Amino acid sequence: MPAFPLVDTHLHIWNLDRLRYPWLAGVPMLNKPHLIEDYRRACGPIAVAKMVFLQCECEPAQFQAEADWVTEVAQADPRIRGIVPWAPLEKGEGAGADLARLAANPLVKGIRRIIQFEADPDFCLRPDFARGVQLLPQYGLSFDLCINHTQLANTIKLVRQCPGVSFVLDHIGKPDIKAGRLDPWRAELRELAAMPNVWCKLSGLVTEADHAAWTPAGLQPYIEHVIACFGFGRVMFGGDWPVSTQATDYPRWVRTLDAALPGATPAELRQLYVTNAEAFYRV
Question: Hey, which residues does 201 pair with through a beta bridge?
């Protein structure tokens, strides 16, 4: 286990009394409030020094309200150092006003869109969406890529259009771990990692595996390949709580990741668990 407090780059919390999350109706296990005090309990013995909140796919019209609510929560738990909300990037140049309003909040560090959920497989290549992504550096914002492995090829094309944007790939691109499939994810991840403005989160692996029967050995080739592609200089830890509770508790995920890196030096582990996150999200 890490001998120092972590930075968790992927925290979700939601309050069903404040906001609407239509997708939760299809996931009964998660369809209840998950608040910051629940997260504190879930961490158990794991010391977490800082967290970055990631948008939780509330009703799109409520994206500003979600950022405002989490800002309130951060007053009660100042370990929340960053917020990554949703924004209507498909408006292209028209997204500027929304981005300016979000970026006026010093806690807002980037934008995330769950491209995986878009019905159009070419959504991320639409010119207006790409233009919206290209605007982000003007507001000091990064972009979290949330896709599955079938969308990596198009994601590479998007990133090539946005050399000035800092990207982080959530959940290592969601490879098909449950089926043990490595290709073409393996080659496409290497191609994505060749672009120096892309980072990667070691998060969400267990929910892409068999929720009830995953093993550390089944995750190992995926973790090793991420490190081979990005090195320890562009990877960061993410807890993905509470989505991850479908397959693991929080301490088990930290123990699993830590055990998967037996050759890592203390300095490399600190990069993974702390300093890369601080640099990327400016926390």
Answer: 236
